[in-house]
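Handoff note, outgoing to incoming analyst
You'll be picking up this chain. Sequence as last confirmed:
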Amino acid sequence: MNRLNTAQRTQVLTCILEGCSVRATVRMTGVSKKAVMRLMVEAGTVAWKFQDALFRNLNCRRIQVDELWGFIYCKQKTVTDEIANKNAAAGDIWLWTAIDADSKLVPCWALGGRNAYVANTFIHDLASRLKNRIQLTSDGHKTYLDAVEGAFGSDVDYAMLVKMYGADQRENETRYSPAECIGCREAIISGNPDPKHISTSYAERQNWTVRTNMRRYTRLSNGFSRTFANHAAAVALNYFNYNLIRIHGKLRTTPAMAAGATDRLYDVSDIVALLEVEEQKQRKVA
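Most recent structure output, in case you need it:
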């Protein structure tokens, strides 16, 4: 099988991480669409494995969590039996994210439905990465209640920020944002959270960053994922870029460095190097 060389791989992944579509990447690099897609999935897998191992025993103090809507192949309301049989992942998908309010690190994320099972998986994963008690803030999504209790017990200062929305004046129109927020209510769930830090602002700002930087989450575009594997790989690459490569404007360092998870600045070529090491391991096994 013909393989792209290191320089080609770096060029392709750079385009993807800069928010280019797959077709635009093909035009700019001259690499075939099939090769671009294969590289993205392979690189996304090693990017996820690397971050999964790196972001452990973290000294975070204030964590905010939120969920971001997207879809694979088509929106849930247009999924037919024929589509479902052809692509089991077709329909709505939610990206669950956690962000450290101080370092801006995203230590973990999850993809799935907006249900109790995914909430439990996500929050337990988050808890396993922390070494100290934290203050946690979520929105009013009720699945967090059991998930947080099951993962942290009483060893957490947890509050919900419940937003209240006014009546939607565009009931018969298609809209892509919630109705107007007319207020917020703080609900103390566990422990003694500091009222000054009961907020989901950083998590919501991270959602905006995702929609801006990741083509598959850009609204009203044709850059959406067609398969779950492609979607998961794109998310993993995005967070490798966000956590380890891009320097945060206010921090003047990367979130991973600010959180103490690493002492070096990473580059796109590091993803390629990780992939090539993984390929060497596979060849030895074979």
